[in-house]
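Task 17 of the worksheet. Students: predict the tertiary structure of the chain below and write it out as structure tokens. Keep your answer in the requested format; marks are given for formatting as well as content.
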Amino acid sequence: MALDIEFVRKQFPGLTTDWTLMDNAGGSQILKGVVDKITQYYYSNNVQTGGSYELSQKAASSLAEGRENIATFFNASRPEEIVFGPSTTILMQFLAKAMAHQFQAGDEIVVTNSDHESNIGPWVALQEIGVKLNFWNINQLTFELELDELDKLMTDKTKLVCCTHVSNVLGTINPIKAIAQFVHERGAKICVDGVAYAPHRAVDVSSWNVDFYALSLYKTYGPHHAALYCKYDHMHDLANLYHYFYDADKIPAKLEPGNANYELSYASGAIVDYLAGLGAHTCKNGTRREQLEAAFQQIEEQEIELSERLLSYLRKRNDCRVIGNPSGTDPTRVATISFTIENQDPQQVCKKMDEHGIAIRFGDFHARRLVESMGLLETNGAVRVSMTHYNTVEEVDKLIAALDSVLP
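Model answer:
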């Protein structure tokens, strides 16, 4: 069944502006259901949790409901495996701080050069305690992370491998399940940045058997909030980041210093409400998780059509270099498409799109090490068009017409 695009767009009030919004990897539009839940929380039980009185109990129940919903989104085994925070960047910093005591001088961590800096910087900082960093670099021809190269980097001292599920520049989906198995067979843990993956495909931490997995809810149709999955067995081993009287069993609160944002954590559950509603079009009698997975099947099909429509145009241009897989029909890429145009400044291309009411972006997208390795940093990086399922074929055609009108 094709995506019901009319139903979809009605759920996102921000799409009613005159702008064509194709900067979704920087931040997606927010669901009306999320905003409604924020308002509901503020107006009905905006009090501190932990009290004996009824409103406080309702506030605690709202927070628990949000955590349960996001556990469903991750396909986590229990809600306590979900940690909330203001952004993926901060959650990764929290995780690195909570894990620091597990490393000794000489231990090794593998990071990639294709990640957003959020999943590189916090681990680089552990060099201060004597941890050795090894960089797993992408193949510059295939834009892929190769297990053969990882095998060369891992030793008996490797304790952790950190990688991205999807590069926010390349749009390439890395085979996380295979990588996780490879890493575990060598005695290490894996930490995955799922920010650029989560809006496009169903997250399934249980199937992939990852140890840690983080994503930004504001890039996944929710509020400016983020969530980190920590496998329950690892929770007790993480240091307490909260008050000294929070012990190792106070999970996940010990990783949420200052408390999770109640209203945003609760309201984020509307993301699952929306996806379940969308998936019910083809999976009426399924569980919420099954409906969510059905929704992402529709989302994938929609985004493949959008991606191929734009990439087929870019492939025909002799002056265009697609930074990543040039095929929109390849299931191992998402609708995040970066490119450069010969003799054209990416910043100026984007400014020209502004005049057409089309929102796209240029630069390194905080994946500076990757962009620098490609020699693009000196020329303002790349142009990035990042679409999601609520974008339409007509919007892609509008973008193509605008590019044709401003490019030589």
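Marker's comment: The chain has a mean pLDDT of 97. The chain has two domains: 5-29+301-406, 34-272.
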